[in-house]
């Protein structure tokens, strides 16, 4: 089959070269075999005068390249696990955001000892409200709208420390914001066509966060349990353990049906779940300073013990899967008929 070449008016243009840079997401042999065809197809669909690939095209190319690389490793289950991990991450964020908004941000400043930022204790309330909006969007407008809202929530979370520094307003500590950023990254892979059950989960998560906040308020008759960010590390760690346990349970259930997507999702969420417990882990390893974690201990715990450990686990899993995939392919090729290419057992069955 003849491969389409780039449109003559686009051949050698900056747009073509930028599409070819995106092709680096694909394996080298795939680029050599089908690169011209892919670039030509995209160039045929763009309007005149465009100099940059659209965000949709860029994400489409990068996602397809990632899937092709995972196919070569025999790890397509990892790509299939991204929507499951995104769904779990979003619902965790919605539950945590609801709890922190009700229990901390809307609490009496005389109890928390903070200088309030308007109606709230810190400007972090904007981030938690943003993630609640993302949850509502995932329920009412799943797919591209939900992913766009998730990208907005992530940008808002990432920008918060800079905004706080420039404005002089109080903000949540990094031990709270870092897991929110990690979970937010995972939400960028929200599914395009979730089930009705999945669409209803954000409402359930918000209800759970509300119920936990109401339970604490009722337990002390309006007292001061977990009403500031300095008193919530235990609950954040509990949320991380619960996230990990639920996704692992789903993964084991799917594994019984020869579906490894749940186990891959567990690996993907290991780092965000670990970050939710950063504060407690840092204090347990390095001790405390003024009743909280030491800054150096938090940095080392986050960078070395959580981020690197999570990346290492995923890398080892991919390497093991790739080795197993190569072994299976080698056995298949060794057993294939030299004349027709069929395996002897397949010929016998036929």
Automatic annotation (TrEMBL):
Keyword Disulfide bond in record: no
Keywords assigned by UniProt? Answer: Membrane, Transmembrane, Transmembrane helix
Q: Which residues cross the membrane?
A: 76-102, 122-141, 148-167, 173-190, 197-216, 236-256, 263-286, 298-320
Presence of the UniProt keyword Transmembrane in the record: yes
**Full protein name:** GlsB/YeaQ/YmgE family stress response membrane protein
Q: Which organism is it from?
A: Micromonospora maritima
Q: Organism classification, top ranks?
A: Bacteria, Bacillati, Actinomycetota, Actinomycetes, Micromonosporales
């Amino acid at each position: 089959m003849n491969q389409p070449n780039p449109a003559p008016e686009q051949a050698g243009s900056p747009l073509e070269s930028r599409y070819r840079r995106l092709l680096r997401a694909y394996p080298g042999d795939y680029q050599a075999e089908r690169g011209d065809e892919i670039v030509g197809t995209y160039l045929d669909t763009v309007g005149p005068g465009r100099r940059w690939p659209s965000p949709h095209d860029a994400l489409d190319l990068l996602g397809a390249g990632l899937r092709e690389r995972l196919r070569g490793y025999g790890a397509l289950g990892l790509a299939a696990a991204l929507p499951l991990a995104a769904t779990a991450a979003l619902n965790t964020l919605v539950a945590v955001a609801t709890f922190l908004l009700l229990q901390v941000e809307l609490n009496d400043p005389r109890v928390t000892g903070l200088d309030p930022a308007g109606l709230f204790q810190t400007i972090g309330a904007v981030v938690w409200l943003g993630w609640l909006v993302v949850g509502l969007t995932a329920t009412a407008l799943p797919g591209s709208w939900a992913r766009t809202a998730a990208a907005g929530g992530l940008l808002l979370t990432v920008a918060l420390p800079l905004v706080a520094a420039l404005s002089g307003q109080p903000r949540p500590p990094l031990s709270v914001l870092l897991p929110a950023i990690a979970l937010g990254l995972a939400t960028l892979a929200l599914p395009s066509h979730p089930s009705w059950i999945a669409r209803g989960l954000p409402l359930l998560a918000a209800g759970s966060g509300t119920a936990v906040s109401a339970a604490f308020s009722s337990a002390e008759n309006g007292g001061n349990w977990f009403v500031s960010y300095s008193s919530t590390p235990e609950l954040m760690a509990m949320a991380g353990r619960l996230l990990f346990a639920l996704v692992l349970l789903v993964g084991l259930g799917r594994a019984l049906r020869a579906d490894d997507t749940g186990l891959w999702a567990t690996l993907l969420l290991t780092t965000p779940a670990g970050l939710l417990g950063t504060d407690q882990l840092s204090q347990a390893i390095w001790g405390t300073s003024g009743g909280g974690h030491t800054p150096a201990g938090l940095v080392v715990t986050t960078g070395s013990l959580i981020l690197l450990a999570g990346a290492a686990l995923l890398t080892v899993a991919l390497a093991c899967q790739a080795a197993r995939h190569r072994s299976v392919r080698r056995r298949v090729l060794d057993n294939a008929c030299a004349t027709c290419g069929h395996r002897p057992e397949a010929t016998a069955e036929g």
